[in-house]
Specification:
With 354 residues, this protein is α/β, with parallel strands linked by helices. It folds into three domains: 85 residues, Nucleic acid-binding proteins (OB fold (Dihydrolipoamide Acetyltransferase, E2P), Beta Barrel); 157 residues, P-loop containing nucleotide triphosphate hydrolases (Rossmann fold, 3-Layer(aba) Sandwich); 66 residues, Ribonucleotide Reductase Protein R1, domain 1 (Orthogonal Bundle), CATH 1.10.40. It is built from eight helices and 13 strands. A six-stranded mixed beta sheet has the order 10-9-8-11-13-12, sandwiched between helices.
């Protein structure tokens, strides 16, 4: 079966190679909207309202394993415009965070993306530490820093320079979406490529999307002048096709971004610090008071920005704590699983002896 007709939706050989011979009669689609009880799935020719099979729910150990916006799925049509999701194909990339609050669980933001537009506003929303945190989302995807509301900033070039000094090799685009000045984003949108757009509420993500689409398909909200904070105008994730041939995933504004990765993910935001630490005299250097520490030397010399280092140390500590909790949680889940297996086995043996 040929799958070239799926290319505009972001299809490639990574997904095609996962389809078994006995699955080729199923309809391939991509999840564009996730609702509470069903999904909207786009195919090459139709749009379906689909539900996942009971087997998918039973096999999923966490909510993150269920179909999410951006996923490629194999479906079976059961009626006109209705389908059942039989399988979720392995994801090529995932951006996710820890769910807000104390609960230890992953929340998928989007899947199978090629680029990540990280938006900050130049109207008082701009925050370098927050930007570094958002960059940790960009694992196996290309991050693009989008500085919006340039029309409200007296000196956008100064902000760009601040970003370049703090985040090495950063790809930065300056736009003014409210004035429909987003042409600088066009070179980053290629036919068949998938882009997710993330940022705090009020940074102008919805206005950027409307400018790219050319019509107001996404609601926009006002921002308070006092603190540059806005309301959530996007309340759910939504995958949409652009006339340019690209695929765009809109996401709700995030008031907080709790990390959900291992410590290696910090390399995206702190490549300079990771490289610098390789020159420390001791491999297990804590970068506090050891002799021959390249980090403390750079801080003393002023070649390493102190705020940059403090944010790195804070996030590294946060991820180390998260890893510890994940290990403990995995051990408890394993213990709980075996306890259930033993209980079921005893019940079976008891029924056999009756």
């Amino acid at each position: 079966m040929e799958y070239n007709h799926l290319s505009p939706l972001g299809w490639n050989t990574y997904f095609e190679n996962q389809i078994a011979e006995d699955e080729k009669e199923l309809i391939v689609g991509r999840v564009s909207i996730e609702n509470k009880t069903n999904y909207q799935v786009l195919t090459a020719r139709d749009t379906y309202i689909a539900e996942a099979t009971g087997r998918l729910f039973y096999m999923a150990e966490t909510d993150a394993e269920l179909p999410k916006v951006g996923d490629w799925v194999l479906t079976m049509e059961i009626d006109k415009g209705k389908a059942i999701i039989q399988k979720v194909l392995e994801r090529q990339s995932v951006i996710s965070r820890k769910v807000p609050g104390k609960k230890l669980e992953e929340q998928i933001i989007a899947t199978n993306i090629d680029k990540l537009f990280i938006v900050q506003g130049l109207d008082g929303n701009f925050n370098l530490a927050r930007l570094e945190r958002y960059l940790t989302l960009a694992q196996n995807v290309e991050p693009i820093i989008v500085l919006n509301k340039a029309d409200l900033c007296p000196d956008p070039d100064d902000i760009v320079q601040q970003v370049k000094e703090r985040i090495k090799n950063a790809e930065i685009v300056v736009v003014a979406a409210l004035q429909n000045q987003v042409s600088a984003l066009h070179p980053h949108i290629k036919p068949g490529s998938t882009i997710a757009i993330v940022g705090s509420s009020g940074v102008g993500k919805s206005t950027i999307i409307n400018s790219l689409i050319g019509q107001p398909l996404v609601a926009t909200g006002e921002v308070r002048e006092l603190d540059s904070k806005g309301r959530h105008t996007t309340t759910s994730r939504h995958l949409m096709l652009l006339e340019s041939g690209g695929v765009l995933i809109d996401t709700p504004g995030m008031r907080e971004l709790q990390l959900w990765r291992d410590q290696s993910s910090l390399g995206t935001s702190f490549e300079d610090i990771e490289a610098l630490s390789e020159h420390c005299k001791f491999k297990n250097c804590t970068h506090t008071d050891e002799k021959g520490c390249a980090i403390t030397q750079a801080l003393d010399e002023g070649s390493l920005d102190e705020a940059h280092w403090i944010n790195y140390a804070k996030m590294k500590k946060e991820l180390a704590y998260l890893e510890t909790r994940q290990d403990v949680n995995a051990m408890l889940e394993k213990k709980k699983k075996w306890k259930k297996i033993q209980k079921d086995y005893k019940a079976i043996q008891k029924n056999r002896n009756m």
